[in-house]
Design goal:
The structure is a homodimer of 134-residue chains.
Chain A: H1 3-10, H2 14-22, H3 40-54, H4 59-71, H5 75-110, H6 120-126
Chain B binds a DNA duplex (30 and 30 nucleotides) through α2.
Chain lengths: 134, 134
DNA sequence: CGTAGGGCTTCCAGTTACGGGAAGGTCAAG
DNA sequence: CTTGACCTTCCCGTAACTGGAAGCCCTACG
């Protein structure tokens, strides 16, 4: 299978697939013409990568997960560790963004938005750091 | 004031301050020795930048906000536009991350985590895409 | 007065995970 | 045999810095 077919089937752009090969996530053999000749197993790895990336796993996490999958034995513990670590980072990010969201939405609500020269948003960013929580 | 003092007072690392100058966000004059000589106004811009960045505004957003602030007249409308745009992007990000969080936490819950060779996380990532929502 | 230290300067490279685009080989169809 | 779609590699650009090297400057101490 050529890269175009694999791209169509996995939903991953050819550029991304080449990149994954470049960083060693898969090693499709080459045909006589120099084209990558993807096997079924390469496709499976790419599907795996696409799903893991969609869940926000980093490339390095994906590398570890692929190794654990290939390992076969004692996979669960490692996989769960990696996933929990990622889950915690996601939770932290959500918390950070929620904090920003709260402040931002209160600022936007407080701003009249017309042609008035005084803007509570600029005031808050520029001078005293006080800001209401609603 | 030298860059070290400014860094201490604004909480921004010297590297970051130099970077902000490099991309044109401020232009502190130089002393005879080549050192940056920060004025009060430079400090104020940096404080502004620090707060805006902490709220997640992009550098380009910050540039616009600083311009609007310097402009003086008709600031509110533009500032509100920029802030609302940013707020929407933050909301989108939270939504994306919440989706990941839901799937991830259900997967982690489903994984026994011991030395068992079968792992529902690997199974979900590797084969059929079905996954319970709780 | 010499030197040791800390602070300042610039420049270069690396980070994450690709995307855009150029230059050029290959393949199937008409 | 040419055309057009596909493939290849290579290099640059992204956001917002951070780390580190090489080298100048300034203050203080003995």
């Amino acid at each position: 299978m050529n890269i175009g077919d694999v791209a169509a089937r996995t939903g991953l752009p050819p550029k991304t697939i080449r990149y994954y090969e470049e960083i060693g996530l898969l090693k499709p053999p080459r045909g006589a013409n120099g084209y990558r000749a993807f096997r079924e197993g390469d496709m499976q790895r790419l599907v795996f990568l696409g799903r893991a990336r969609a869940l926000g796993f980093s490339i390095e996490d994906c590398r570890v997960l692929l190794d654990l999958r290939a390992d076969g034995t004692r996979a669960s513990a490692g996989v769960k560790d990696v996933s929990q670590g990622h889950l915690r980072r996601v939770e932290q990010k959500i918390a950070d963004l929620s904090g920003m969201h709260e402040t931002l939405s209160s600022l936007v609500r407080a701003c009249a938005g017309g042609t008035r020269p005084d803007c509570p948003i600029l005031d808050t960013l520029g001078t005293g750091a006080a800001q209401g929580r609603a």
